[in-house]
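Technical note accompanying the year-one report. For the benefit of new consortium partners, we illustrate the data format agreed upon in the data management plan: each record pairs a sequence with a structure-token string. No post-processing was applied to the example shown here.
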Amino acid sequence: VLAAAVPVSAGLWRAGGRRLAGLGLALCLVGFAHAGWVALAPCLSCRDGPADVTVYQKNLRFDGTDRAALVADIIASGADLITLQEVSRASLVVLSDLDAAYPYRHLCPFSGVGGIAILSRLPLTAPECPVPGLATARVALAAGDFVVASVHLYWPFPFDQHGQVERIRAALGDPARLILGGDFNMQPWGWAVRGLPGDRIGGLGVT
């Protein structure tokens, strides 16, 4: 969108709409600066040394096609836990191909684009689908017992992201140990993300 806005603004400038063009270019500059800041944002809660647990988070895209590469990437990651969104009928082959490496699975329906899932190398207990857009289970790790959750939020507009976050927050409560991965359809500093329990861990990457 930002890249397309630049030639549009230039066209407006040449056509004599200099105020609109100037406004468009100013917004483009702000947008590019914002995107750069997001890409370079530091990890908020990182440390050196081995991790207690490794989590792989992915929106599968309901219409994605490169399933073999995805399965290989997940296995190569060596992750202990996997949180997935948009697990559609086409995506079920991914889950099947991961059965051997991740024998424990919890899948919740969500919307037309697909459900949400948690996969684990370790046994999952107390699996629940407490509210739309949230899958939870418990897992025993070396550091203790954790609630692991996979989340898929609605778009903020014209959908009820705000209300969904309130329902998810109420369903999660305030567990002492929580691992939450998801597609939040929101910037990391947006209310929808800050309204959920926990701190963001890790940098940002292109999906």
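Partners are asked to follow this layout when depositing records. Strands lie at 55-59, 81-87, 104-111, 114-120, 124-128, 134-141, 144-152, 178-183.
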